Protein: Dolichyl-diphosphooligosaccharide-protein glycosyltransferase subunit TMEM258
Amino acid sequence: MASAAEFAMGLESMSRYVSPVNPAVYPHLTLVLLGIGLFFMAWFFVYEVTSTKFTRDVFKELLISLVAAVFLGFGILFLLLWVGIYV
Structure:
């Protein structure tokens, strides 16, 4: 069984975890990703309102909504990280 001294020595020899994304860029990533996501969301809403049932394309709807969801999802993730809610 390892003693407390051996355990402390093992912790000192370990390297500290460094996040792959610098926390200083969280605000910038938040604004950029949410801006892109809002653009695609607005494009999707305009497409749905202005198209008729004859001119709608389900693949275009799915593609635009998927892109909007991905950008908004990552934007909200970095927003939470920016304000200190570490998920």
In short: DSSP finds three helices and no strands in the chain.
